[in-house]
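Quick one: structure for this chain?
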Amino acid sequence: MTTKKFRFALFFLLPITVLSVSTLASDLSQYKVYKSLPDALANKDSVFRLDLSNHPFYGFPSRILQFKNLRELILNNADITHIPESISKLDRLEVIVIQDCYISTLPNSIGQLKKLRVLELARNKLDTLPNELSDLESLEVLALPYNNLKYLPRSFARLVALTDLNLANNRLVELPDGLTGLENLETLNLTYNKHLGKVEELQKVLPNKKIKNLELRGLNITVLPKEVQKCKKLEYLNLSKNEKADFRMELVLLSKLKFLRHLNISENELNELPSEIKLLKKLEKLEVYANNLFSLPDEVTVLKQLRVLDIRINRFAEMPVQVFQVESLKELNISVNKINALPKDISGLSNLQKLHLNRNRIPVTDREQIKDQLPNCQIFF
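Got it. Here's what it folds into:
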């Protein structure tokens, strides 16, 4: 018998795309969610949604197979090591969420669940996937973060209905060919798969014409493939934690993307923010935290739509004057720097709604003055 354990993930400074089951399965909201197996067994034909999370199960509860009308199964945080082949009997399933368990493999019969739209198996022990997974012709969301996967099935590109794919924090050595054929893919998360930062690997999934959100954190990327400029609908790109000291060429490539609104190049080895940042004129949010920045380039003032600027955990000794010229700015995070005073007149920040100054060296006597000059701003010291 396995000792049950609870696992927690630390998400500070680690943005992970959260996939919403409720969004894709909103038509299920009309049905009651059964949270007790005895209650469900007393109403077998009326059980469409079942959530048995945090129950003391040891193994997959076989009695679940009696619910022939089941469409949503949630079974988190239990001592489950495998899903039985007999899961195929629940052929009306649209949503399966089994997270924080001990599952190391999936049954071949998983491919028979032709109505399955959402499969979330985060924080398990998966080290392989069956080829039959590629038979899930209706699958839109596949979330497999925090597992032990090294390879994906060669037939993976047949999952053409996928809109959201989360493979973060696995051990992937390579990607299968043909992933550019996932023409409905809008969100892709490859975070912390360090072997996938090679150009030849990224070229297996880029370009993608519909992709909007791309997480490439911690991939050891040295060069971003030029194919990224063909991702015409890209809105959010995370290139943090790649230990790059220069993003000039990347910014030139990204200038071709007319819908790019949010860029994260934090936790690299940047000593300066390249002046090429001026090319991203549509940016609304820029994250450059945890680098080695002493100053900002004047070109930042060209970003007339910038609303959020995160430059915490750098080496600023004073408030960069450029921020006073970005009138669109609503939130500025300059926490954990070496600032010991602000300019006497900071009224140029009057449009700010949030100002983060935590863990700087600003005297207590100056704080009231700052609050008086920014009466409509929420300030954090």
